[in-house]
Amino acid sequence: MNAKQIDQQTLLQNETDPLTHTPVHLLSLDKVGKHYGNIVALTDVTMAVDNGRVTCVLGDNGAGKSTLIKIIAGLHQHDEGVLKVMGEDRKFTSPRDALDVGIATVYQDLAVVPLMPIWRNFFLGSELTSGFGPFKSMDVEKMKDITKHELAEMGIDLRDVEQPIGQLSGGERQCVAIARAVYFGAKVLILDEPTAALGVKQSGVVLRYILQARDRGLGVIFITHNPHHAFPVGDRFLLLKRGKSIGYYEKKDITLDELTAQMAGGAELAELAHELEQLGGHGDVVKEVKGEVAEVAQTTGKAYS
Amino acid sequence: MTITQTQTKTAAPDERVAKRSPFQKLLGRPEVGALVGAIVLFIFFAVVSPTFTQPNAFATVLYGSSTIGIMAVGVSLLMIGGEFDLSTGVAVISSALTASMFSWYFSTNVWVGVGLALLVSLGIGFINGWILMKTKLPSFIVTLATFLMLTGLNLGLTRLIGGSVSSPSISNMDGFASARAVFASSVSLGGVEVKITVFIWFALVAVATWVLMRTRVGNWIFAVGGDANAARAVGVPVKATKIGLFMAVGFCGWILGMHNLFAFDTVQSGEGVGNEFLYIIAAVIGGCLLTGGYGSAVGGAIGAFIFGMANKGIVYAQWNPDWFKFFLGLMLLLATIVNLIVKRRAELK
Ligand SMILES: Nc1ncnc2c1ncn2[C@@H]1O[C@H](COP(=O)(O)OP(=O)(O)O)[C@@H](O)[C@H]1O
Ligand SMILES: [Mg+2]
Fold first, then answer.
1. A225 CB under 6 A from ligand 1?
2. Which of B1, B4, B236 sits opposite A124 (nearest CB)?
3. C-alpha separations of B250 from A294, B71, B86, B89, B155 in Å
4. Has domain B29-348 been given CATH number 3.30.870?
5. What is the best residue among A32, A35, A38, A39 to mutate for testing ligand 1's pocket, by most ligand atoms within 8 Å of CB?
6. Is B120 within 8 Å of B106 (Cβ atoms)?
7. pLDDT tens, N- to C-terminus, chain A (305 residues)
8. Is the complex ipTM more than 0.95?
9. Which CATH number is A128's domain given?
10. pTM assigned to the model
């Protein structure tokens, strides 16, 4: 294999706390594991998130990507390993805990309430208030203005922020969820497959948002199964497969082709070509898959047959 | 990779959105179906019974509405928050029994009993909510259990302590007069005696509307009813919100319980069974979705008003009160169908 895997130990010692001179990351996971009842969803995952860096998590459906970010977002608790925020051991008991340390998340299912107006969804859980004590009321006008403005920034011109969010298209809803997380994400921004449901133009907008967040000094965790989306914006790449890490790379140590090859899994492609051939027909398809196998073999330096 | 500036767009008016007139905005409100129903019913009874529109008769209708409406405020909020409470009817009686029995047997000022009853009512709400959150059972089951237990406790404890099915009369006790003035007096408005519960009802509706529309707690109530998982994911305290809603229902039950006690001076321990449905029906007629996440306090009030009109209107029209239940059933069916259409329109494009 050409690509050099990151040595976990050196990575965790890369950056040190200026006061204590101990290794510290904005957020780090060490050998984290999680099971749902008897289903093991995640084992032995190690990764780090730093200010101004984008950590990409790649993997096929069911690889455990969502489980991983739900642990970081406080929706689930890990059963094994340690999660550290600024060098401090943490186990979030609720999403509120994670939000309070500045971790904002765009969930795959978006976490919006369909019947509620857009602006109420945007500020849900982080409402702006004015007034004192029991007479504290929401600053409705300000919240509506901010919602409108933030979405316009994303290139989404909303008809009416009073509309129930359930009436928006999937892509528009996605943008509201992203705009919300970007607005409230103070330190870490997590995006779970934000581009999966989007068109080309809107995907570009989201990728640009990730870079903007990075340049503002946020640590970004970007989850996707598309290496073409991950590679241009990512600084580090964690590859998951069936709940396990199958590789963790710095950008300088891997190319897009290598990343794609790792993702595609050369062996599986070879198997697919073989199966298709046996089924007969599909000559052009078989040829195409075989071509890809050759390509994968070339980039990873392995032979599949 | 360099970063390109996102172009800032000024939010120009969108050609895709037709300007909505105030009338169209009204049509989008949850309580509009109930409002139309209330107007139709009012005109109907005004036509069939000339006494119905007399100020005194109207004050009676309002009084009847308020005894449902006070509870419907809490029950509506709870339903918007996605839960049910079947124990409300008997919990009202539990509260009244607590106040009267405690002050009688410990010979205290009745206000001590009133204060204790408030604690008991809030406590019942808290226990309902807490069990619900701990067990994650449907609220239907949990509150059905509390309904049965409270029914038994009301009867059993009253007999055990006083050897009777009703609480002793507390009319001669200290503080009775002032408590009656607060919970069960009348106010004269231009020669028409209006019961104080009507004003309490209006005040509760106003406060609940303000909480729902203008406070963050209101935002949380809609969210926990609409999608509790999404609400939790963005940091809404789902458990506290739901438990708080059950306690708000308890608070409304306390007010009605105190009214029932001080309007007379004794309480029948077997009363209240079945009333929980009246409150739920008022909320549903008023446009609160059974599945949560949608509705208004004003809607619940209109539902209670429809209830009061049908209840008293049938008497003024000199019909057999048997018809009342038929009316109620019909209203409920129509209202639920209207709600269903509203929800579909809101969820689908
Ligand atoms: N709440 C849950 N209960 C049980 N199993 C779950 C739950 N959530 C996820 N899983 C399982 O864990 C595995 C990883 O899921 P997930 O993290 O959602 O994958 P991904 O996001 O990479 O597609 C899957 O096999 C899935 O079935
Ligand atoms: Mg997922």
1. no
2. B236
3. 71, 9, 12, 11, 20
4. no
5. A39
6. no
7. 444 554 444 344 455 555 555 567 888 899 999 999 888 999 999 998 988 889 999 988 889 999 999 999 999 999 999 998 888 888 899 999 998 888 999 988 888 999 999 999 999 999 998 888 777 889 999 999 999 998 888 777 777 888 889 888 887 888 888 888 888 877 899 999 888 877 788 788 888 888 888 888 889 999 998 888 899 999 999 999 888 888 888 888 888 888 888 877 655 666 666 676 676 656 676 676 666 666 655 655 554 44
8. no
9. 3.40.50.300
10. 0.85
